[in-house]
From TrEMBL:
InterPro entries: AA_transpt_TM. The lineage of its organism: Eukaryota, Viridiplantae, Streptophyta, Embryophyta, Tracheophyta. It is a multi-pass membrane protein. It comes from Vigna unguiculata (Cowpea). It is found in: Cell membrane; Endomembrane system. This is Solute carrier family 36. The keyword Ubl conjugation does not apply. GO terms for molecular function: symporter activity. The chain crosses the membrane at residues 28-48, 54-75, 176-200, 272-291, 311-332, 375-395, 401-421, 433-454. One of its GO terms (biological process) is amino acid transport. Coiled coil: none annotated. Residues 21-457 form the Amino acid transporter transmembrane domain. GO terms for cellular component: endomembrane system; plasma membrane. Keywords: Amino-acid transport, Auxin signaling pathway, Cell membrane, Membrane, Symport, Transmembrane, Transmembrane helix, Transport. Belongs to the amino acid/polyamine transporter 2 family. Amino acid/auxin permease (AAAP) (TC 2.A.18.1) subfamily.
Length: 468
């Protein structure tokens, strides 16, 4: 059997001729936390309120275990046909094409692009909501909680977009480690603030209505509204755990050396770390948020003004959200950038605009390499996501729809089917039947979540007037 040293050819290149990777399991863990703990955590108190004390925690833990299991399967498919010594698949789509073939590859591309682009749109919406919440928080503190403190989101979406235009010039995942560590710290920060404020509200003795089954039909909502909100809540929780669409790219940044474990072992360690941290914070945010607000829990417990005071702490939490989403946007945008740039480079290999880089001197930093195509294409992408965010700024419904679209195909269907092919699992064996049952269950979950979220968007559109 070949030794691991054969996979480390020289200090500049890996075994397949690509530039040497620099990531570790710790940087991979940071990428995972940055990708997973995002806008979804803010809606968990609302989601638990729709589901209640029994179904809420059960569904949170269920999706945690499903995500962990399917992530392990993806880790083993990174190299094919052998999980340790096979050929690397450096993107999710490459992996699907290699193992499942061209038709599945095209379907995967559609699902992945829809989710990645949708996530960037969702992060633009959420960041602007948090920036608006800072202004409104200060307004309420100054003029009272009953004051009319309406502030438009559109200017803040533009500000977020301008920031992302500059940060999008970071070439690839290899250069995102610092940004991901900062973003991960920010996610801990705002999650902790939300938890602390919830505990303070509970300790204050506020009496709120909670129940084993969540919001009550006849008292809080109608029969149909209960059904739609339950579906939407399941979609929100699914979205809160889903990061499979960027997992392969994260694993591709891991630096393989003689003294390090194989990529699949290191990535499994990073996945356990990332999902364990995520689940701990999710359970605290969801359950404590529900206990603090009860069946009237807001859709976003830091920007929905469940908390007014101390206003400076609410402001700080929202600042943390914005900084985190700046990094999270890049984690989800980089695979899109890589896909388009790789295709264009192959299509026009002799083009100067594709290949030539220009040195730009930055004071106190040094010379930064700028590629004309990268600058133009990534700027256009950021502008398009910002414009779409301005047209459809519906937080909870968008979050639920993204979860329903992405969770089943990207986090369950493709990982499990690639595993069945790579491991050569016999048809109708116990493992094969178990995997198929898991697929069927998650497909049903995705469909009902999509229905609930679409109903929410339709309801919002009845009263929404864009750009007003």
């Amino acid at each position: 059997m070949e030794s691991q040293e054969n996979y480390v050819h020289n200090f500049k290149h890996d075994d397949d001729g690509r530039i040497k990777r620099t990531g570790t399991w710790m940087t991979a863990s940071a990428h995972i936390v940055t990708a997973v703990i995002g806008s979804g955590v803010l809606s968990l108190a609302w989601a638990v309120a729709q589901l209640g004390w029994i179904a809420g925690p059960v569904i949170l833990m269920l999706f945690s275990f499903i995500t962990l299991y399917t992530s392990f399967l993806l880790c083993n498919c990174y190299r094919y046909p052998d999980s340790v010594h096979g050929t690397r698949n450096v993107t999710y789509m490459d992996m699907v094409k290699t193992i499942l073939g061209g038709r599945q590859y095209r379907l995967c591309g559609l699902a992945q692009l829809a989710n990645l682009i949708g996530s960037c749109i969702g992060y633009t919406i959420t960041a602007s909501i948090s920036m608006v919440a800072i202004g409104r928080s200060n307004c309420f503190h100054k003029y009272g909680h009953k004051a009319e403190c309406h502030i438009s989101n559109y200017a803040y979406m533009s500000i977020f977009g301008v920031a992302e235009i500059f940060i999008s010039q970071i070439p690839d995942f290899q250069n995102l480690s610092g940004l991901s560590f900062i973003a991960a710290v920010m996610s801990f920060g705002y999650s902790s603030i939300g938890i602390a404020l919830s505990i303070a509200k509970i300790a204050g003795g506020s009496h709120v209505k909670t129940s084993l089954t969540g919001v009550e039909v006849g008292k809080d909502v109608t029969d149909m509204k209960k059904i739609w909100s339950t579906f939407q809540a399941i979609g929100n929780i699914a979205f809160a755990y889903c990061f499979s669409q960027v997992m392969v790219e994260i694993q591709a940044s891991y630096h393989l050396s003689q003294n390090c474990p194989p990529e699949n072992g290191a990535m499994k360690k990073a996945t356990v770390t990332g999902i364990s941290i995520t689940t701990f914070f999710y359970m605290l945010c969801g359950l404590l948020g529900y206990q603090a607000f009860g069946n009237k829990a807001p859709g976003n417990f830091l920007t929905g003004f469940g908390f007014y005071e101390p206003y400076w702490l609410v402001d700080l939490g929202n600042v943390f959200i914005v900084v985190h989403l700046v990094g999270a946007y890049q984690v989800f945008a980089q695979p899109v950038f890589l896909l388009v740039e790789s295709w264009c480079a192959g299509r026009w290999p002799e083009s100067r605009i594709m290949a030539k880089e220009y040195g730009v001197k930055i004071p106190s930093v040094g010379t930064y390499k700028v590629n004309a195509f990268r600058l133009i294409w990534r700027t256009v992408y950021v502008i398009l996501t910002a414009v779409i965010a301005m047209i459809l700024p519906f937080f909870n419904s968008i979050v639920g729809l993204l979860g329903s679209i992405s969770f089943w195909p990207l986090a369950v269907y493709f990982p499990t089917h690639m595993y069945l092919v790579q491991a050569k699992v016999p048809k109708f064996s116990t493992v094969w039947i178990g995997v198929k049952m898991l697929n069927g269950f998650c497909l049903i979950v995705s469909l009902v979540a999509a229905v609930g979220s679409i109903e929410g968007i339709v309801s919002d559109l009845k009263t929404y007037k864009p750009f007003e």
